[in-house]
Amino acid sequence: MAEQKRRNQILTTVSILLLLGFIYFAENYLDLYIVRILNVCAIYAILGMSMNLINGFTGLFSLGHAGFMAVGAYTTALLTMPPAVKQQIFYLTPLIKPLDQMNLAFPLALLVGGLLTALVGSMIAAPVLRLKGDYLAIATLGFAEIIRVVFTNTQSITNGALGLKGIPALTNLWWSFGTAAFTLVVLLSLINSSYGRALKAIREDETAAEAMGINLAKHKTLSFVTGAFFAGIGGGLLGNLLGTIDPKMFSFMFTFNILLIVVLGGMGSLTGSIISAFIVTFANEYLRFLDESINLGFFVLRGKVGMRSVVFSATLMFVVLFYRHGLMGSKEFSWDRLLASRVCQRMQGCFKKRLLKGGYDQ
Amino acid sequence: MSLLKLTEVTMNFGGLTALKSFNLELAPGEIVGLSGPNGAGKTTVFNVITGVYEPSHGQIFFMEQEITGMRPDLITKAGIARTFQNIRLFKGLSVMENVLIAHHLHLKANYLAAMLKLPGYRREEREMRERSLALLERVGLADLRDEQAGALPYGMQRRLEIARALATNPKLLLLDEPAAGMNPKEAEDLTAFIKEIQTEFDLTIFLIEHHMDVVMNISELIYVLDYGMTIAGGKPAEVQNNQRVIEAYLGVNEDVED
Ligand SMILES: Nc1ncnc2c1ncn2[C@@H]1O[C@H](COP(=O)(O)OP(=O)(O)OP(=O)(O)O)[C@@H](O)[C@H]1O
Ligand SMILES: [Mg+2]
Question: What is the rounded end-to-end Cα distance, in angstroms, of chain B?
């Protein structure tokens, strides 16, 4: 037992060191395109985990994530853009004071973005969380749309439909992976605490949870606001990665992508959300050809814009219908399970055989 | 002094009166039964006591405080715990987690302290675990603490649900048909178990039991409902020979045999 624990600690430490080494390598030697995709992976992992807290662990069917991300993205962007750039892009209506002169350090701006999103989350929590199931989904979806419409029309704060351009590219792999790791650690600690158990109890059976003395409104709000906080931070990282944001970006399609990550990774598994964030993001890139024309030399296959969305929607349907537990179900990643898995056992078997037989295979 | 008092409690669901002018007084330390045929309004009594429904008329007092229409979690906090007729465990969670969750209402550490695992929270978590384990040992489920609650055999699920209710540290325990679906031997064990926990945890117990023989065995007092009306109340022997009770039950038996 103790030995196993030690082994797992060593494995974890080695993995973290390898990851740090990899980030260093990627930042310095990999091409920008790959680095950008890796950044997106980590940001999607943050967004997936935060949505999983609300939807997977607490059982609240919320679809307001794009709204949260928008609040975080705009806040962080406005707080990090140099005053000169702001003056330049807000040419229709000038940016209100004191935002036009404000300039914060990136981590501080991210934190403010997260806190402001949490505030917005807490404001809509009271009316919205009284609803259940489909009604909650519709209300939160409505909230995200309202955010979008408001952002399109508050010219003097958001620059309206023109969006923000020239956002400093402050997001790098250290920030995105660091924040993802921080999110994982904090949320894991939360779900394993007494409050986390209370959230799971609400998911399992609201009536019974309430009969056990759990204040439903309070705990649902805590979960919702915490999820909003991390979604806001994720949004902030995304804005400062892409360099430009506009209200159209934060449509339902965005929420849908995050939902796909959560469902594919397993409702109620944070590590599942991380794994599937990487899978979905890379798939999104590699399936790009579906939207474009493919030249087969003698024949040009006409791609259809939107084909990728169809593939993703079909995947979600497939997962929900036939594979409801997703990759991880409600379990978290563990070394014990990985080492006991069939693939790993076979690999270990081969390895030992090779050692014994001196290189002969079977 | 009465622990629980219901005065003229009526519960209407649309046009249906599930409970009519119901009066009840429980003294501390009593075991009282509530009986009656299907649909008589027994579970409704529990639901209005625990705040699931707000009664249409009447008042409910617990330890001299009015609790009519209060939120269910606050009523549980005040000291009333319950089990459900069709077992409502947190099925996907472990046996241990089920009991731990019932301790949550006594947690003093706030959300951030728990998330950051501050020392104060850690101590409370450790105490919660110790108490939960002791409780599971007491009800004979300690060996199964890591099993999924929904995977336990029926009788054990019933026991776990009682253990979970006890974990909230109640003064009054409401049991909704705890012996339902059990064979006579199991029902007898359960009766003994209920009597034991009553003295051990210093409880007042109010239990619904459909089967007259079980209630007779365990309760000092029995109330009988039929169509939302109290048709009898008193010592088991008196109630058993009450003409209206016999009729109510015979009526039901005919229905059942159809
Ligand atoms: N939420 C509700 N809405 C409408 N009618 C209800 C509701 N709850 C209970 N009733 C009705 O009230 C009556 C009493 O129900 P209750 O569940 O209290 O009966 P019971 O005595 O517990 O019966 P059983 O022995 O079957 O458990 C029934 O006719 C039932 O259909
Ligand atoms: Mg009932």
Answer: 46
* Strand ranges (E), B133-220: 172-176, 204-208
- What gap in Å lies between CA A246 and CA A164, rounded to an integer? 6
Distance CA A88, CA A108 (A): 24
Could you count the other beta carbons within 10 Å of the beta carbon of residue B243? Answer: 9
- Tell me: do B157 and B177 sit in the same domain: no
What would the DSSP string read from start to end of B90-134?
Answer: -TTSBHHHHHHHHHGGG--S-HHHHHTT-HHHHHHHHHHHHHHHH
In our burial notation (b when 16+ CB lie closer than 10 A, e otherwise), range B130-156 reads ebbeebbeebebeebbeebbeebeebb
Q: What is the pLDDT of residue B132?
A: 96
pLDDT tens digits, A98-129: 877 888 999 999 999 999 999 999 999 999 99
Which residues sit opposite A294 in a β-bridge? Answer: A301
Nearest partner of A231 among A124, A308, A309, judged by Cα: A124
**In chain A, where are the structural domains located?**
30-289+302-331, 335-362
Closest approach of chain A CAs to the CA of B96, in angstroms?
A: 11
pLDDT in tens, A145-164: 999 999 999 888 899 888 99
Q: Which fold has domain A30-289+302-331?
A: ABC transporter involved in vitamin B12 uptake, BtuC (1.10.3470)
CA separation for the pair B19, B228 (Å, rounded): 4
* Position B252 pLDDT exceeds 90: no
Q: What is the ipTM of this complex?
A: 0.92
User: For residue B53, how many C-alpha atoms fall within 13 Å in the half-sphere facing its CB?
Assistant: 18
Say whether A211 and B121 touch across the interface (CB within 8 A): no
How many domains, in total, are found in chain B?
Answer: 2
What are the residue ranges in chain A where pLDDT is below 50? 359-362
CB A53 within 8 A of CB A223: yes
B37 Cα nearest atom in ligand 1: 25
Q: Which ligand is nearest to the CA of B53?
A: 1
**Beta B65-66 vs B16-26: how paired, if at all?**
unpaired
Nearest CA to ligand 1 atom 10: B18
Q: Tell if the CB–CB gap between B105 and A205 is shorter than 8 Å.
A: no
Minimal Cβ distance to A194: which of B71, B128, B164 = B128
Residue B24's φ and ψ, nearest 5 degrees, are: -160, 145
Give residue for tokens 């009447």.
B58
Is there a contact between B26 and B4 (Cβ–Cβ < 8 Å)?
yes
Q: Could you identify the residue written with the tokens 């970006």? A: A249
Owning domain of residue B160? 89-167
Residues in CB range of B235: below 8 A, 6 or more apart:
B220, B221, B222
Residue of A122, A182, A204, A216 for testing the chain B interface, max B β-carbons within 10 Å: A204
Q: What is the pTM of this model?
A: 0.90
